[in-house]
């Protein structure tokens, strides 16, 4: 019924508006999923406490829930009509004067209503064919993302020519605007995180402020939030009800210990350094894909002089999200072997800052010439928005033997300033070759893509907490509520090292918060199958942490590619947020400290962070 | 407000013709304010509010209290968004079906909205409250209370005359709907548990026609 439903029928601005609503909804769902996960964990714990409930020999003699022995005449217990186990009088929950259930049955029923499972069950009766839990909002978002991907890929990639016809220009500018809206989508997600409680109207109110009289009352506008606590009825009689936690005899500490144990089961993030070769199993991708990795860079820079020019053109095909570099020719190159007047040139390009083999493209080697003609187009699949941070490094090399290579010169083009929409910049030009720019060490900077997250430190607002504590908790959770929570939404990653045929990954993210006492809280996202640019949008909640603890903690995030059976998961890259000054090699992100402080100093606000993923594994 | 410190996530949805006051009503409910401006809703939207729900014991004695997180979906009344808005019906647990007391046409359309609900909501007889809005505009009234009540009775759903402008019956209507949903929820659970186990596992059909019977299962 809703299968064909999508957002195509909407005008662009309308779609934007609806998407923002859908993303807001997604946050509501994320929070709820986390709540449900916790509920389920508590139930599991409760069940473990009553382990004897399955062993029949005790059934008639002891309470199935607490194992207290039952008498034959006095205190003989009663059979729960939910599970048919005999339980003592303490292990019952009275629903009304005529109906009671044992603690486990009660907890099961409680779960069913609190998780909303009752609703899904009901709905499944009417729509048995549909996904039981998926909401329309989630479905729409998914299909929108899929659709926007499909529609930017044309059936056949257009040939790379110098045509500057009007049609082409039109096409490009159109697909550009589409692409922009996909970008905006990502952006709007981020903005939404900040305006998380706003509804359509509030957004519009912001806009209309500029022009209309709506803004006459600024205060009113500020107060317009879609959520409010005003209705929380503070004064009313509240009878203490058995919460799951209360049913679990034992303290909160107990529960926490359980959490720790549970989390420990998650795989440890390996700490052994991994060899570079991991990324070298490449497949051909439009051009030669080198099996060697960055180490070939250590080649010969001791060239005496650099001469000559190189002719190439750069363009971006918006439809296919491809950067195309067409290397046409070189002239007046210096000889690779000056004495023998030998030169076997080839061109090699990197999309800096990525210096891994993934970023490397090479032309074929031309023999015995200093004026080689290449006519080769080297391609990168890359998001347009990514280009801004990239530089195209085009170098020319002499290939002497298998081992020896001589540097003949290079050109570095910063793509941030490149106007891809202007046809004139798409045509061929000659560029003067230059000597190696910068230190060779720079080349060894590891770049394994980017990880986008947003994070928020949640500190309970005083007033609300007090109300709740008095009313609901009876002091039981005081300890936990004094603490805060670190929320981190792992949005997605770009430019991950893809190596599988078909170029996709089954990626997931592990998060590990290391507290000052070296205690680690671990989290793991679900695996996203077959996505080269995964968008997990998964919420990590690091619970029960105080701001002062966090000030001395560090957070490690690692992206992994799930292995097909048997083999080990493949490490893709990692990033770290830490309060310490950067030390060591990979930790060299000076932003790290800054971002961490930003999160800690602005509680209850979403902070967007883009990490550069590093491949080093050591800490 | 984005923390998970609540017991239930309840999703309600407001529907009805364009301009009857769905958005304004929800805004009154969540923020207790009135917006006289008409800004038609694009597709869908939602607001949130957290409330404490008190269930009542069997003899009206004070029962339990729960923290409820309400997600209040607002739909566009305009025809051209219909495919989108009706799709969202399936995720809602209860409905605020609204018409405008000053518009006979919006009242006549209630029938159509009912059949849309029947087709798209999670079950055949979901919890609905019928709301005649803009009760404050008594001089422009086109629908009289008798007519509206008769219709509501025909469907077996509660009816309220509301005003987003004055706040009349706004909270009451939402609370009534929440109450219906919470009751249905408890019944669902009690019923399945009793039939799952005591009656040897065959879970009977859940029809909410005989609520009293489910109240005391033993
Ligand atoms: N006097 C009065 N005006 C109201 C009342 N409720 C809504 N209005 C006005 O009616 C107009 C339409 O209200 P909206 O809430 O935007 O209507 P809607 O049902 O959301 O319309 P769509 O989004 O197009 O489906 C606005 O100008 C409101 O101020 C009310 O109870 N009394
Ligand atoms: Mg509206
Ligand atoms: Zn017991
Ligand atoms: Zn039981």
From TrEMBL, chain A:
<protein>
    <recommendedName>
        <fullName>Synaptotagmin-like protein 3</fullName>
    </recommendedName>
</protein>
<dbReference type="Pfam" id="PF00168">
    <property type="entry name" value="C2"/>
</dbReference>
<feature type="domain" description="C2">
    <location>
        <begin position="306"/>
        <end position="428"/>
    </location>
</feature>
<dbReference type="InterPro" id="IPR035892">
    <property type="entry name" value="C2_domain_sf"/>
</dbReference>
<dbReference type="GO" id="GO:0006886">
    <property type="term" value="P:intracellular protein transport"/>
</dbReference>
<dbReference type="InterPro" id="IPR041282">
    <property type="entry name" value="FYVE_2"/>
</dbReference>
<dbReference type="InterPro" id="IPR013083">
    <property type="entry name" value="Znf_RING/FYVE/PHD"/>
</dbReference>
<dbReference type="InterPro" id="IPR011011">
    <property type="entry name" value="Znf_FYVE_PHD"/>
</dbReference>
<keyword id="KW-0677">Repeat</keyword>
<dbReference type="Pfam" id="PF02318">
    <property type="entry name" value="FYVE_2"/>
</dbReference>
<dbReference type="GO" id="GO:0006887">
    <property type="term" value="P:exocytosis"/>
</dbReference>
<dbReference type="InterPro" id="IPR043567">
    <property type="entry name" value="SYTL1-5_C2B"/>
</dbReference>
<keyword id="KW-0472">Membrane</keyword>
<comment type="function">
    <text>May act as Rab effector protein and play a role in vesicle trafficking. Binds phospholipids in the presence of calcium ions.</text>
</comment>
<dbReference type="InterPro" id="IPR000008">
    <property type="entry name" value="C2_dom"/>
</dbReference>
<dbReference type="GO" id="GO:0031267">
    <property type="term" value="F:small GTPase binding"/>
</dbReference>
<dbReference type="InterPro" id="IPR010911">
    <property type="entry name" value="Rab_BD"/>
</dbReference>
<feature type="domain" description="C2">
    <location>
        <begin position="467"/>
        <end position="597"/>
    </location>
</feature>
<feature type="domain" description="RabBD">
    <location>
        <begin position="4"/>
        <end position="122"/>
    </location>
</feature>
<dbReference type="GO" id="GO:0070382">
    <property type="term" value="C:exocytic vesicle"/>
</dbReference>
<comment type="subunit">
    <text>Monomer. Binds NRXN1. Binds RAB27A that has been activated by GTP-binding via its N-terminus.</text>
</comment>
<dbReference type="GO" id="GO:0005544">
    <property type="term" value="F:calcium-dependent phospholipid binding"/>
</dbReference>
From TrEMBL, chain B:
<dbReference type="GO" id="GO:0071985">
    <property type="term" value="P:multivesicular body sorting pathway"/>
</dbReference>
<protein>
    <recommendedName>
        <fullName>small monomeric GTPase</fullName>
        <ecNumber>3.6.5.2</ecNumber>
    </recommendedName>
</protein>
<dbReference type="GO" id="GO:0005525">
    <property type="term" value="F:GTP binding"/>
</dbReference>
<dbReference type="GO" id="GO:0031489">
    <property type="term" value="F:myosin V binding"/>
</dbReference>
<dbReference type="Pfam" id="PF00071">
    <property type="entry name" value="Ras"/>
</dbReference>
<dbReference type="InterPro" id="IPR027417">
    <property type="entry name" value="P-loop_NTPase"/>
</dbReference>
<keyword id="KW-0449">Lipoprotein</keyword>
<keyword id="KW-0342">GTP-binding</keyword>
<dbReference type="InterPro" id="IPR041837">
    <property type="entry name" value="Rab27a/b"/>
</dbReference>
<keyword id="KW-0472">Membrane</keyword>
<dbReference type="GO" id="GO:0005795">
    <property type="term" value="C:Golgi stack"/>
</dbReference>
<keyword id="KW-0007">Acetylation</keyword>
<dbReference type="GO" id="GO:0019003">
    <property type="term" value="F:GDP binding"/>
</dbReference>
<dbReference type="InterPro" id="IPR001806">
    <property type="entry name" value="Small_GTPase"/>
</dbReference>
<comment type="similarity">
    <text>Belongs to the small GTPase superfamily. Rab family.</text>
</comment>
<dbReference type="GO" id="GO:0042470">
    <property type="term" value="C:melanosome"/>
</dbReference>
<dbReference type="GO" id="GO:0030140">
    <property type="term" value="C:trans-Golgi network transport vesicle"/>
</dbReference>
<dbReference type="InterPro" id="IPR050305">
    <property type="entry name" value="Small_GTPase_Rab"/>
</dbReference>
<feature type="region of interest" description="Disordered">
    <location>
        <begin position="192"/>
        <end position="218"/>
    </location>
</feature>
<keyword id="KW-1015">Disulfide bond</keyword>
<keyword id="KW-0378">Hydrolase</keyword>
<dbReference type="InterPro" id="IPR005225">
    <property type="entry name" value="Small_GTP-bd"/>
</dbReference>
